[in-house]
Amino acid sequence: MASVFSQTSMPSRQVLADRVYEELLAALIDGRFEADAALSIDGIARDLGVSPTPVREALARLEHTGMVRRAALKGYRVAPLMTAEEHGQLVAVRKLIEAENAELACARANGPMVEQLADTIERLRTAPTGGSYSEFRDYWKADEDFHRLIAEFTGNPFLLTAFQALGGQVQRFRLFAGRGVTDADCAISEHTRILQAFQAGDPKAARAAMEKHLEGVGRRAVEDSSD
């Protein structure tokens, strides 16, 4: 069977572990594995030309994103597709956590932090948004950085942990469909309104703008999945 991975040379140690993670993440997001498919550590290692160790490490990291699942004595499997109901529940949790993050972070924000938020939006504007992970990876990273910066600036480590625990669950509903980024203009506009609240030093407006953004993300994801 042909390999699902790109044929590139592999470096070593930590860089190798990160590279294997990226290769697996790309394969999952691009739909090269079917939902609920078994993942063979030895088979993946052979395909990538590495030992099983970095594959195990990568799968353990991916388990935290929700994109793969591990069952005792059965190994790893690709996560099943998220249902619309589950996605609605996820959006509700994101609103609880991230709206609070936005309000708290806005109250504590300083000039350099606001500049960093603005930079992530500029990166969104200039990043490619093609259909494959390699084409929209920079966009996705900029989006993640925007939300992470806000979470990190709340001053509440428990909120940050809760935010991090969501991990790839945030993206799973959409990306397994293999459609990539379809709402860049809407997302950039919504991020900009959040940024404007930070620039104005208005925590309540930041909360409201974040809530509207997440509602829009949820609505567009469901619309994409039903096309």
Per DSSP, the total helix count is 10
Low-confidence spans: none
Strand order of the largest sheet: 1-3-2
SSE order, as H and E? HEHHEEHHHHHHH
Radius of gyration over C-alpha positions, nearest whole angstrom: 18 Å
Q: Please provide the count of β strands.
A: 3
**Between the first and last Cα atoms, what is the distance in angstroms?**
31 Å
Task: Tell me what portion of residues adopts beta-strand conformation.
Answer: under 5%
Helix content: 55-70%
What is the mean predicted local confidence, pLDDT?
88
Largest sheet: 3 strands, antiparallel
Q: How would you classify the helix and strand content by structural class?
A: mainly alpha
Characterize the overall form.
elongated
